[in-house]
Design goal:
Layout: E1 9-13, H1 19-29, H2 36-44, E2 48-54, E3 57-67, E4 70-78, H3 87-101, E5 106-111, H4 116-125, E6 128-139, E7 142-152
Parallel strand pairs: 4-5
Antiparallel strand pairs: 1-2, 2-3, 3-4, 5-7, 6-7
This protein binds coenzyme A (COA).
Coenzyme A (COA) binds near residues 86 and 117.
């Protein structure tokens, strides 16, 4: 599908009143979704939490932890109906900008080896595989490894 024009979507900081709408996306996007508490804890902890909007419709969200010269993407998602239109890439570029403004030198994230869409996106942006975290994620048949990826900022 073709990319959306730049001006019709926007990124803004997440707030607690967004959590219900986020959860209705989160539950459709992950086999093991975050809980509402994971989002409110992230907000309470002062993490850099964002939503992506198309007009007034929430189409995606992301949680970025900043600290000690590093940025760690804890969650990034685009609603199913809005995927493959360039929003995930633009959201990652937004997070990279935020991390650079914070003067982070490295950005990290974990991804399931089975999550081919996310892996492609991160590789395209320039993330490199750095390590495997054994049994990091829950899975329907036990546990799944995580690939730790890093990007030098
Ligand atoms: C991963 C995710 C955020 C990508 O968002 P998106 O808006 O669809 O991504 P984009 O349209 O910006 O795609 C950027 C690139 O990612 C890759 N990509 C995205 N979706 C893909 C898919 N289904 N299959 C293969 N590659 C894919 C492609 O390289 C794509 O570039 P291209 O369109 O020029 O080929 C989205 O699939 C998602 O929210 N998934 C569910 C939640 C999730 O898994 N989050 C990541 C956790 S680590």
């Amino acid at each position: 599908m073709s990319a959306l024009p730049e001006q019709i979507f926007s990124f803004r900081p997440m707030n607690k009143s967004d959590v219900d709408a986020i959860m209705s996306l989160e539950r459709t996007l992950y086999p093991f979704p975050w809980t509402p508490g994971n989002f409110t804890d992230s907000l309470n902890a002062g993490y850099s939490c964002w939503v992506c909007e198309f007009g007034s419709i929430m189409v995606g969200y992301a949680v970025l932890m900043l600290g000690a010269g590093e940025a760690h993407v804890l969650n990034i998602a685009i609603g199913q109906d809005w995927q493959r239109q360039g929003l995930g890439r633009r959201f990652m570029q937004h997070l990279i900008k935020v991390a650079r403004e914070y003067r982070a030198e490295m950005m990290f994230l974990e991804v399931r080896p089975s999550n081919k869409a996310a892996l492609r996106l991160y590789e395209d942006i320039g993330f490199n595989e750095m390590a495997t975290r054994r049994g990091y994620y829950p899975a329907h048949d036990g546990r799944e490894d995580a690939i730790l990826m890093g990007l030098s900022l």
